[in-house]
Design goal:
TrgA family protein; transmembrane; mainly alpha
């Protein structure tokens, strides 16, 4: 059921996903073609905010910050996962794998490489600010417009 908390959570996490995506882009090699990188991450943020954060709103300030932590963790998990799958499909179309099992294993290798690549202090601080912002705004919306 649509609520103001779900809408606020989706909107806040999508904004955070946009800014984190902009922070990740300079970390990648110069020859990287980003294509739909930012729109895909924004859609992931919308989904995480709506599904994971929105339904857990309205339980207090501490729970709101924990809700924001959960949202940012899921945003990074799904973002890295989707981008790793995208890269695996790109490499699979160039016949880089001998079989489907090798391609699936490669998803986890690529995801681990991306996780190490984005594990920087500025991105961590951006996620921390996004955590508090998203959690508190979602809680505000749940209390203000039940």
């Amino acid at each position: 059921m649509p609520t103001a908390a779900r809408l606020m959570a989706a909107f806040c996490v999508a904004i955070t996903a946009y800014f984190i995506s902009l922070m990740v882009m300079p970390l990648m090699p110069e020859s990287t073609d980003f294509g739909y990188f930012i729109p895909v991450n924004i859609c992931i943020g919308l989904g995480v905010g709506w599904i994971a954060m929105g339904r857990r709103a309205g339980r207090g300030t501490t729970a709101a910050i924990n809700n924001g932590l959960t949202g940012m963790f899921l945003l990074m998990l799904w973002g890295i996962g989707v981008q790793a799958i995208n890269e695996m499909v790109r490499l699979a179309m160039r016949n880089r794998y001998d079989g489907p099992f090798e391609a699936v294993v490669e998803i986890f290798k690529i995801g681990a490489e991306y996780a190490v690549l984005v594990a920087t202090v500025p991105i961590g601080l951006g996620l921390l600010v996004g955590t508090v912002f998203c959690g508190l705004m979602t809680e505000f919306a749940a209390n203000r417009w039940p």
